[in-house]
Amino acid sequence: MFSESSGPAFEFSHTPVLASECIEALNIRGDGIYVDGTLGGGGHASLIAEKLEKSGTLIGIDKDIEAIDSAADRLESYGCKKLLINDSFENIKTILRANHVGRIDGALLDLGVSSYQLDNPERGFSYMKDAPLDMRMNANVSLNDEQGLTAEKVIGTYTESELFEVIKTYGEERWAKRIAAFIVKAREEAPVKTTGRLTEIIKAAIPAAARRDGPHPAKRTFQAIRIEVNDELGTVRRSLDAYIDSLSSGGRLAVITFHSLEDRIVKEAFSRREDPCECPKDLPVCICGKVADAKRVNRKPILPEEEEVEKNPRARSAKLRVIEKL
User: Fold this and answer.
1) Which stretches within 99-218 are classed as H helix?
2) Sheet order of strands, 57-62 included
3) What pLDDT, on a 0 to 100 scale, did the predictor assign at position 116?
4) Does the residue 121 lie in any domain?
5) Which domain holds residue 102?
6) For position 94, which CATH number holds?
7) What pTM did the predictor assign?
8) Are residues 79 and 148 in the same domain?
9) Contact (Cβ atoms closer than 8 angstroms) between residue 175 and residue 211
10) Residue 82 to residues 102, 270, 271: CA-CA distances in angstroms?
11) CB 227 within 8 A of CB 151
């Protein structure tokens, strides 16, 4: 779906992470077709657009309508063709077909939550600001819609064992069992509806000695709930092969991850495309017939320089992996 920019009420700013590294990795051709599947505020997209000629095309995708509106303004001055689409990046093949695009020459996925979503208190992503428990990246989905899962619904309706699994698996939180138990006990007294109350519950669940070191005590739990609400890992798993399939020969997919769960999925997917053989390892020759159609550009992930991390602390955990279609 296409959006006419009306301008979001809260300014959508975005400092692109690993910006120069991404642009170099994409090896942009002026007349090529490039996809930014996580458009956000248009930070990376504007750098791609700078490299494109009038004959080139930028396709920007984001399921947050406010991102589409903001990016439309930011990208207006660039001369390339621009298609800004309000959808999930996992639907790339449907999007390309609908817009009569065959193959693309490159794509970028900058995973995780955007700075705008974190900083906008109304969205409920941050444990630093008191707000309604929401955390939906697709905020234009009706709460009555079947897709309208929110953080409040997760906290209010999941069983204690389900909460434990979410917090343990997606947050890799040592104190997941205690946090889940404290949440269930707290909601029996009154519904947990705000980020502020949830943060206090988490703090109470984690022993004081464990809160003194490391990140904010609520960081891992908030990450876990956000991932659950938006099915982030499932979306990544369903997307990677679709993007690689859509590349022209020599085209590249660049993916930025921010935590180990995402990075593991990307690393394994790239490895499968580079070595798809399913034969037992003790066979002297391959008999399954599956051959590689892509190669990893960087064997190890590209990490931000210290200078970037100093300027933008959110870049600290970023990792960039790149794969090229043969």
Assistant:
1) 115-119, 151-157, 160-171, 176-189, 195-205, 208-211
2) 81-86, 57-62, 33-36, 104-110, 247-257, 319-325, 294-296
3) 65
4) no
5) 19-110+232-325
6) 3.40.50.150
7) 0.88
8) no
9) no
10) 16, 28, 32
11) no
| Residue found by looking up tokens 């791609």 in the block | 48
The residues, ordered by sequence, that sit 6+ positions from 307 with a Cβ below 8 Å of its Cβ are: none
**What was the pLDDT predicted at 64?**
87
Are residue 236 and residue 199 in the same domain, yes or no? no
Domain shared by 242 and 315, yes or no: yes
Would you tell me the crossing angle of helices 219-230 and 160-171 to the nearest 10 degrees? 100
Tokens describing residue 173: 């939180």
Can you tell me the distance from the alpha carbon of 237 to that of 232, in angstroms, rounded to the nearest whole number?
9
Give how many domains the chain has, as a whole number: 2
pLDDT digits (tens, 9 = 90+) for 112-124: 776 666 667 778 8
Question: Residue 167: which CATH number?
Answer: 1.10.150.170
Q: Tokens representing 131?
A: 């707000």
The last residue of a domain, from among 230, 252, 267: 230
Q: What is the pLDDT of residues 64-82, one digit of tens each?
A: 888 899 999 999 999 999 9
Is there a domain that residue 202 lies in? yes
Residues of the chain with confidence (pLDDT) below 50: 1-10, 142-146
Domain boundary among 230, 251, 278: 230
pLDDT value at residue 161: 98
* CA dihedral for 260, 121, 176, 314, sign (positive or negative): positive
